[in-house]
Amino acid sequence: MDWQGQKLAEQLMQILLLIAAVVSFVVGYATASFRTMMLIYAGGVVLTTLITIPNWPCFNRHPLKWLDPSEAEKHPKPQVVVVSSKKKSSKK
Protein backbone atom coordinates (compact mmCIF):
# COMPACT_ATOMS: atom_id res chain seq x y z
CA MET A 1 0.00 0.00 0.00
CA ASP A 2 1.44 3.35 -0.99
CA TRP A 3 1.30 6.60 0.99
CA GLN A 4 -1.75 7.96 -0.81
CA GLY A 5 -3.44 4.59 -0.33
CA GLN A 6 -2.79 4.74 3.40
CA LYS A 7 -4.32 8.21 3.53
CA LEU A 8 -7.35 7.02 1.57
CA ALA A 9 -7.79 3.98 3.82
CA GLU A 10 -7.59 6.19 6.92
CA GLN A 11 -10.18 8.62 5.55
CA LEU A 12 -12.50 5.78 4.53
CA MET A 13 -12.18 4.21 7.97
CA GLN A 14 -13.09 7.45 9.73
CA ILE A 15 -16.07 8.14 7.45
CA LEU A 16 -17.44 4.60 7.60
CA LEU A 17 -17.13 4.37 11.39
CA LEU A 18 -18.85 7.74 11.79
CA ILE A 19 -21.71 6.65 9.51
CA ALA A 20 -22.04 3.35 11.38
CA ALA A 21 -22.12 5.18 14.72
CA VAL A 22 -24.80 7.65 13.61
CA VAL A 23 -26.98 4.98 11.96
CA SER A 24 -26.66 2.61 14.90
CA PHE A 25 -27.50 5.37 17.39
CA VAL A 26 -30.57 6.51 15.44
CA VAL A 27 -31.88 2.96 14.99
CA GLY A 28 -31.10 2.05 18.59
CA TYR A 29 -32.84 5.18 19.85
CA ALA A 30 -35.88 4.62 17.60
CA THR A 31 -36.25 1.00 18.69
CA ALA A 32 -35.18 1.69 22.30
CA SER A 33 -32.78 -1.24 22.04
CA PHE A 34 -29.19 -1.03 23.19
CA ARG A 35 -28.55 -4.51 21.77
CA THR A 36 -29.72 -3.48 18.29
CA MET A 37 -27.54 -0.40 18.44
CA MET A 38 -24.45 -2.43 19.36
CA LEU A 39 -25.14 -5.09 16.70
CA ILE A 40 -25.51 -2.47 13.96
CA TYR A 41 -22.31 -0.73 15.09
CA ALA A 42 -20.44 -4.06 15.22
CA GLY A 43 -21.62 -4.75 11.67
CA GLY A 44 -20.28 -1.33 10.65
CA VAL A 45 -16.92 -2.10 12.24
CA VAL A 46 -16.72 -5.45 10.42
CA LEU A 47 -17.67 -3.80 7.10
CA THR A 48 -15.09 -1.06 7.67
CA THR A 49 -12.46 -3.68 8.45
CA LEU A 50 -13.22 -5.60 5.25
CA ILE A 51 -12.98 -2.42 3.18
CA THR A 52 -9.89 -0.79 4.67
CA ILE A 53 -7.53 -3.53 5.88
CA PRO A 54 -6.99 -5.69 2.75
CA ASN A 55 -4.50 -4.34 0.24
CA TRP A 56 -7.03 -3.57 -2.51
CA PRO A 57 -5.75 -2.33 -5.91
CA CYS A 58 -7.35 1.08 -5.31
CA PHE A 59 -4.80 1.60 -2.51
CA ASN A 60 -1.85 0.96 -4.88
CA ARG A 61 -2.38 3.60 -7.55
CA HIS A 62 0.87 5.45 -6.79
CA PRO A 63 3.63 2.85 -6.40
CA LEU A 64 6.87 3.89 -4.75
CA LYS A 65 10.03 3.99 -6.83
CA TRP A 66 12.84 2.46 -4.84
CA LEU A 67 16.41 3.58 -5.31
CA ASP A 68 18.47 1.15 -7.40
CA PRO A 69 21.23 -0.54 -5.32
CA SER A 70 23.95 0.72 -7.69
CA GLU A 71 22.59 4.27 -7.27
CA ALA A 72 22.52 3.89 -3.50
CA GLU A 73 26.25 3.13 -3.40
CA LYS A 74 27.03 6.44 -5.11
CA HIS A 75 25.35 8.45 -2.34
CA PRO A 76 26.91 8.16 1.12
CA LYS A 77 24.74 7.54 4.13
CA PRO A 78 24.24 10.51 6.43
CA GLN A 79 26.50 10.49 9.46
CA VAL A 80 25.04 10.56 12.95
CA VAL A 81 26.26 13.57 14.88
CA VAL A 82 26.34 13.23 18.64
CA VAL A 83 25.77 16.51 20.41
CA SER A 84 26.94 16.52 23.98
CA SER A 85 25.19 18.99 26.17
CA LYS A 86 26.92 20.00 29.35
CA LYS A 87 24.62 20.91 32.15
CA LYS A 88 25.65 23.88 34.21
CA SER A 89 25.30 23.32 37.89
CA SER A 90 23.91 26.25 39.71
CA LYS A 91 25.23 26.47 43.25
CA LYS A 92 23.87 29.04 45.61
From TrEMBL:
One of its GO terms (cellular component) is signal peptidase complex. It comes from the Eukaryota. It is a multi-pass membrane protein. The keyword Thylakoid does not apply. Residues 70-92 are annotated as: Disordered. GO terms for biological process: protein targeting to ER; signal peptide processing. InterPro entries: Spc1/SPCS1. It is found in: Endoplasmic reticulum membrane. The chain crosses the membrane at residues 12-32, 38-56. Keywords: Endoplasmic reticulum, Membrane, Transmembrane, Transmembrane helix. Signal peptide: none annotated. Belongs to the SPCS1 family. PANTHER family: MICROSOMAL SIGNAL PEPTIDASE 12 KDA SUBUNIT, SIGNAL PEPTIDASE COMPLEX SUBUNIT 1. Component of the signal peptidase complex (SPC) which catalyzes the cleavage of N-terminal signal sequences from nascent proteins as they are translocated into the lumen of the endoplasmic reticulum. Dispensable for SPC enzymatic activity. This is Signal peptidase complex subunit 1.
